[in-house]
From TrEMBL:
<comment type="similarity">
    <text>Belongs to the aldo/keto reductase family.</text>
</comment>
<keyword id="KW-0521">NADP</keyword>
<feature type="binding site">
    <location>
        <position position="128"/>
    </location>
    <ligand>
        <name>substrate</name>
    </ligand>
</feature>
<dbReference type="InterPro" id="IPR044500">
    <property type="entry name" value="AKR5G"/>
</dbReference>
<feature type="site" description="Lowers pKa of active site Tyr">
    <location>
        <position position="95"/>
    </location>
</feature>
<dbReference type="InterPro" id="IPR020471">
    <property type="entry name" value="AKR"/>
</dbReference>
<feature type="domain" description="NADP-dependent oxidoreductase">
    <location>
        <begin position="43"/>
        <end position="277"/>
    </location>
</feature>
<dbReference type="GO" id="GO:0016616">
    <property type="term" value="F:oxidoreductase activity, acting on the CH-OH group of donors, NAD or NADP as acceptor"/>
</dbReference>
<dbReference type="InterPro" id="IPR036812">
    <property type="entry name" value="NAD(P)_OxRdtase_dom_sf"/>
</dbReference>
<dbReference type="InterPro" id="IPR023210">
    <property type="entry name" value="NADP_OxRdtase_dom"/>
</dbReference>
<dbReference type="InterPro" id="IPR018170">
    <property type="entry name" value="Aldo/ket_reductase_CS"/>
</dbReference>
<dbReference type="Pfam" id="PF00248">
    <property type="entry name" value="Aldo_ket_red"/>
</dbReference>
<feature type="active site" description="Proton donor">
    <location>
        <position position="70"/>
    </location>
</feature>
<keyword id="KW-0560">Oxidoreductase</keyword>
<protein>
    <submittedName>
        <fullName>Aldo/keto reductase</fullName>
    </submittedName>
</protein>
Length: 290
């Protein structure tokens, strides 16, 4: 499928309705999620994560993505408290780790994450990986948390189509989000289409390919549009209707990653970027990781 076709079918992305770092997409339950957020994977607890979050909020970001695994939820919470931005203007995501999966275990893990973040309500809670034999009970716990009002949206991370089909066969509440590795070398078009057809918002982790941006096409498009290769990739995410959460601890890069709304990639250039797909992962394969 060409990127332009995705663009037309989803109807979610155009320069007329997305013009700012804080602009949002409506999830299937009506909750609005920012298109761009700050990822804090491998950002150190303490001053480093606090400063990164504060710099991002200053730059206009309103979405922060963390996880129990990242060991920096407390720092994220402190930065949010220090930011001076109203809580209801921010969108905070965290995730239940594999060793905490299971129904009762997940409820306990959520409460621990909530306390570390110093937040009464989490905006999005995700099952971090599809742990065989456990992820359905884990997701049932997420459904309870959602029904009880402790989370505004629930979803999954690293779920491929077989995992989603298995989960949807029993789930009471359809996941609102599926966060997966997604970048020009791993476009996962069938998974993207399945999520779109089922009203599940796709979100990209590792959108900048862990810094592996030295591709000739990215260099060419960077020169053409007067943007960095990172900005080209992040803009490509958005025009494909994918939420993106680039990670950085450098203030200038955090600001650079927010500067995506004064240009638009042509349909031909979108198709060329989609054509880079090699099914190449920089992270683990969900079918063999757990």
């Amino acid at each position: 499928m060409q990127s332009g076709e995705i663009f037309r079918r989803t109807g979610v992305m155009s320069l007329s309705n997305v013009q700012h770092i804080g602009d949002t997409v409506k999830l299937h339950n009506g909750v609005r999620m920012p298109w761009v957020g700050l990822g804090v994977y491998k950002t150190q607890e303490g001053e480093q994560v606090e400063q990164a979050v504060l710099d991002a909020i200053e730059a206009g970001y309103r979405s922060i993505d963390t996880a129990k695994l990242y060991n920096n939820e407390e720092g994220v919470g402190r930065a949010i408290a220090q930011s001076g931005v109203k809580r209801d203007e921010l969108f905070v995501t965290t995730k239940v780790w594999n060793t905490d999966q299971g129904y009762e275990e997940t409820l306990r893990a959520f409460e621990a994450s909530r306390k570390r973040l110093s937040l009464d309500v989490i905006d999005l809670y995700l099952v971090h990986w599809p742990v065989t034999g456990k992820y359905k009970q884990t997701y049932k716990a997420l459904e309870k948390l959602y029904k009880d009002g402790y989370v505004r949206a629930i979803g999954v991370s690293n779920f491929l189509q077989p995992h989603l089909e298995d989960l949807l066969a029993e789930a009471e509440i359809k996941p609102m989000v599926n966060q997966v590795e997604y970048h020009p070398l791993l476009t996962q078009p069938h998974l993207h289409g399945f999520c779109r057809d089922n009203g599940i918002q796709l979100e990209a982790w590792s959108p900048l390919m862990q810094g592996n941006l030295d591709l000739p096409l990215l260099t060419e498009l960077s020169d053409k549009y007067g943007k960095t290769p990172a900005q080209i990739v992040l803009r490509w995410d958005l025009q494909n209707g994918v939420v993106t959460i680039p990670k950085s601890v450098r203030k200038e890069r955090i600001h650079e990653n927010a500067n995506l709304f004064d240009f638009e990639l042509s349909e031909a250039d979108m198709a060329a970027l989609n054509g880079l797909d090699e099914n190449k992962r920089f992270g683990p394969d969900p079918m063999t990781f757990v």
